[in-house]
Amino acid sequence: MQRLAYFAALALIAAPAFAADIPDDPMKSPLWKDMAGRFLTEGAHPIVFDPAVKVSVPPMAENAMAFPVTVDASALEGVSRIFVFADIAPIPEVLTYEPVDAVAYLSFRFKVEQATPLRAAALAADGRWHVGSAMVNAAGGGCTAPSAARADLAWPDHLGEVRARAYTSAAGESRLRFTVRHPMDTGLGAMPAPAFYIEKIDITAPDGHLVGRLNMREPVEADPTFTLRPHTGAGTPSLTIRGMDTDGNGFEGTVPVPGRSSALPVLPGAG
Amino acid sequence: MSLSRRHFLAWATAFGVLPAAGIWPAAGVAAPLAYDLRPAEIAPGTWTIFGAREDFSRQNGGLIVNSSIIATLEGAVLIDTGCSLRHGEALRTLAESLTGAPVVRVYLTHHHPDHMLGNLAFDPAIIAAHPAVIEGIRVDGEAFAGNMYALLGDWMRGTSAVVPGVALTAPSERIGGHEFSFIPLKGHTACDMAVMDQTTGVLFAGDIVFLDRALTTPQANIAEWQTSLATLATIKPRLLIPGHGPADAQGRALAQTADYLGWMAGAMGAAVEDGLDMTEAMDLAIPERFSGIVLTRHEWRRSVVHFYPALEAARLPLLGRRL
Q: Among A194, B17, B110, B231, which one has the highest count of C-beta atoms within 10 angstroms of its own C-beta?
């Protein structure tokens, strides 16, 4: 009886604090519960796996330094933030996107260290984390040349340059694509360069209101490129992209938003 | 132990009865990995080993590329050495048995791993390539080998990149009654060399030409590639051997490669211009006329990764700077 009580106590102490609230992972990743416990338990929001959060990835990583992902949580009501993380990675956190005045939709690319489940957790108006997953297969590209180690020595001259373009479909839906020049050093590996990366990017409308906010970590690709879908109307002739890196370097660019154009294709998910 | 019991055990072991009964584990030997090379005689004294029209796999050991053997009066000539030491050794043995003579010259079409990682099976002094191909092997060779080890595992055992010993600077070379001329090209890589056997009329086009197998673009420049195809179109060989795919006597291979590249360049540029991100571009439809080409979806996805960043840099205007 005493031994039974001892083991019961041991089980209680050993179990993670919120293990009972974290659903089992359909992908059966050994690190899912650890990662969910680490990132999704603050605020005690219930966690559900939800196919409405679509995570689109290619079947294999052709370039492990820039693996493309599209997260589409637009089917959910009132998504306040989307948190992307990888179960098995030296730095599991990838980014958080707050679609303040935008569709809950984001495309980005990130550095893959090894094959891992990738998660996009969307906090919706119902107060729950809705989690979508995809398997990232990093099997190597065969004929791919080795990645050059920052061979462009002139990169400081281009640090913070913003290339951007906005598109408007016939239905009036907008899309913003932009790239910011930045080495996004992880601080890991053989290269001794310390971590140096863009931490935050805000997209604002001319009246100053926040359209979208990105907070990101080291795994986002070098010279990161993003696709967002801001809500725009007659009052948004332009959008401003403003951000800062871990050294306090700021950058800014303003993008004109074209009027409705029938020449542009209907965007995915629109109409 | 009694004498009779000891005798019984010795007898049982010798005849494998006990191991067969599972009392002692039988010695197991995994089937050794071996390339099953099937040469096809495509011209007098000329054989091509046609690679599988597949992607690299543990099943095919990387035998996805075409290599060719030419019998000459001075010995055998080999074009491209395969993707591993084992592959190169198998080609060497096959060349010796087909031609009755040792391999006296190896030509490499370009520096990609599936075409040159069998070099270690040959004396570097007989391996000849364009100087830019040699430089490519020097720079990328070991990293390519690493990638191949990850893909093919033990098929690659003992393989390392070997730099050719002969830099081809002359336009042609005469070996044992065959006149081989060299056509330096670019587009699939920074240097792709086609070899024309003037004596038989066979053009070994290397990876400038793919037939019925989707072309690969990790180091490609489409405009240069189209120029190279136009150059090859002026040659009019009796037979063309592409880097991947079947032999072609009608010019179909050149036309298909050019058509496919033209479509790819247009579709890729349009995708960026239309504001698609990479994952959306990867799902775009591939024209029906290419349905006879294998691996198009797989290679198109890879090509999106290869070409998108440069196209985005060109088509997204510079609108912002560091503060």
A: B110
Residue A186's H or E segment, with its range, is: none
Residues of B in contact with A249 (CB under 8 A): 322-323
Tokens representing A190 are 């053989």
Spell out which residues of chain A touch residue B301, defining contact as CB-CB under 8 Å.
58-59, 62
Q: Which two tokens stand for residue A213?
A: 């906010």
* Closest-CA residue of chain B to A224: B309
Tens of pLDDT, residue by residue over A55-65, are 999 999 999 89
Strand (E) or helix (H) holding B13 = helix B3-14
B233: helix, strand or coil: helix
- Per-residue burial over A40-57, b if 16 or more Cβ lie within 10 Å, else e, is bbeeebebebbeebbbbb
A:89-118 residues touching chain B, CB 8 A cutoff: 107, 109
Does A249 contact B148 at a Cβ distance shorter than 8 Å? no
Q: How far apart are CA A232 and CA A206, in angstroms?
A: 11
Complex ipTM above 0.90?
no
Q: Does A165 touch chain B (CB under 8 A)?
A: yes
Dist CA A93 CA B97 (whole Å): 58
Q: Which of B305, B306, B307, B315 to mutate to test the interface with A (most CBs of A within 10 A)?
A: B305
**Model pTM greater than 0.80?**
yes
Which of B113, B274, B317 minimises the CB distance to A163? B317
Spatial neighbors of A189 by CB under 8 A, at least 6 apart, are none
Q: How far apart are CA A147 and CA B219, in angstroms?
A: 12
CB spacing of A66 vs B305 below 8 angstroms: yes
B23-56 pLDDT, tens digit per residue, is 555 566 677 899 999 999 999 999 999 999 999 9
Q: Considering CB atoms only, which of A142, A146, A265 is closest to B56?
A: A142
Q: How far apart are CA A229 and CA A237, in angstroms?
A: 15
Crossing angle of helices B252-273 and B222-233, in 10° steps, is: 160
A175-192 exposure pattern, b = at least 16 Cβ within 10 A, e = fewer: bbbbbbbbbbbbeeeeee
pLDDT digit string, tens, across residues B291-322: 999 999 999 999 999 999 999 999 999 999 99
pLDDT at position A5 over 90: no
Q: In whole angstroms, what is the distance from residue A234 CA to residue B116 CA?
A: 60
End-to-end, the C-alpha distance of chain B in Å comes to 92
Q: Do B275 and A175 lie within an 8 Å CB cutoff?
A: yes
**Positions of E strands within chain A:** 47-49, 54-56, 67-72, 81-86, 93-98, 102-110, 116-123, 129-136, 162-168, 174-180, 198-204, 210-216, 225-230, 238-245, 250-256
Asked if A165's CB is within 8 angstroms of B140's CB, the reply is: no
Which residues on A lie below 8 Å from B219 (Cβ)? 143, 145
